[in-house]
Design goal:
The chain is mostly helical. It contains 14 helices and no strands. It folds into two domains: about 80 residues, no CATH class; about 230 residues, MetI-like fold, CATH 1.10.3720.10.
């Protein structure tokens, strides 16, 4: 186990370097000039043809280090990353870590609530559909989940705002931001209630799409496991059906579900660009989207690097959990 873990940790380093190098090249090949965009935001972009403006652009490129060759820029960036320094933002000259730590708690609250609801609803529905395969309830759940899966997130968000957010019908839920104005000065219980009330519509939009995939995956794995000989043997011993399903069958059906951990960690960090933009939630998704529009290279590279690292960590955790859940798996 220790030798396998050491090999996997060593493999993470070249994989992460490869991901960051490809991302760095893609960013550099994208159209747009951070120095010119900075001038446009300060109101000097209209002088782009004048000698003064060109001089300001060159000075800005030197300030950001954009005048150096691409390999040198990448090596300098890698050197800073090894010291956990992602640099400063081109947009507002703030430390990138500070901007990430400011947005991350909001994204974690949104995604943790969504992931909890997806597993809470989808896994029991998948198990029930497998144990009642072909029944009317199984067909209804299949139709319902795939219908929800086919609905675009932005369309559902706009529909919920119109129906429940004071659009054309009921004004039940807030549709802007993550807290009410002045909520920081409230008591904790009142602040928590306000925060949960603001999260209702975004969490619904984040949750419904994952129900179909996880429930169908659970159903398929349970159907395969239920047909195994050891499940029939457990039934032949006279064990209760609940014990047979949850102790013998469900435990072995969890292995593919554990694989989803590799994608849950980066999704919790990256956030949702569409949902956060529609509901004006200051999370990681909105931060990444704004960084792309403003060609804020340090922020883009930081988000990509941390997401890649979390994906690799999720894959490693999934492999280790395989051995914990199924002793037959030999990591060596």
């Amino acid at each position: 186990m220790q030798g396998y873990l050491l090999r996997r940790l060593i493999q993470i380093i070249p994989t992460l370097l490869g991901i960051t190098f490809i991302t760095f090249l893609i960013i550099q090949l994208a159209p747009g000039n951070p120095a010119l965009l900075k001038l446009e935001m300060t109101g000097q972009g209209q002088m782009s043809d004048s000698a003064v403006s060109q001089q300001i652009i060159e000075q800005t490129r030197q300030l950001y280090g954009l005048d150096k060759p691409l390999p040198v820029q990448y090596l300098l960036w890698v050197k800073r990353v090894f010291t956990l320094d992602f640099g400063t933002s081109y947009k507002d000259h703030r430390d990138v870590w500070d901007k990430i730590l400011e947005r991350l708690p909001v994204t974690l609250q949104l995604n943790l609530a969504s992931i909890f609801l997806v597993y809470l609803i989808a896994i029991p529905c998948g198990v029930y559909s497998a144990t009642h395969a072909g029944s009317l309830t199984d067909r209804f759940l299949t139709l319902l989940f795939f219908l929800l899966y086919s609905l675009p997130g932005f369309w559902v968000a706009v529909l919920l705002i119109m129906l429940l957010g004071g659009g054309d019908f009921w004004d039940w839920f807030p549709v802007y931001g993550i807290s009410s104005i002045g909520a920081e000065s409230w008591s904790f219980s009142r602040w928590l209630q306000d925060r949960l009330w603001h999260l209702v519509l975004p969490v619904v939009c984040q949750t419904y799409g994952g129900l179909a995939y996880l429930s169908r995956l659970t159903r398929a794995e349970m159907l395969e496991v239920i047909r195994e000989d050891y499940v029939r043997t457990a039934r032949a011993k006279g064990l209760r059906e609940r014990v047979v399903i949850f102790k013998h069958a469900f435990r072995n059906a969890l292995l593919p579900i554990v694989t989803l951990l590799a994608f849950l960690l980066p999704s919790m960090f990256g956030g949702s660009v569409i949902i956060e933009s529609i509901f004006s939630i200051p999370g990681m998704g909105q931060l990444g989207f704004e960084a792309v529009l403003s060609r804020d290279y340090p922020v883009i590279m930081a988000i990509t690097t941390i997401s890649a690292l979390l994906t690799l960590a999720g894959l490693l955790i999934s492999d280790l959990l395989y051995a914990v859940m199924d002793p037959r798996i030999k990591l060596e």
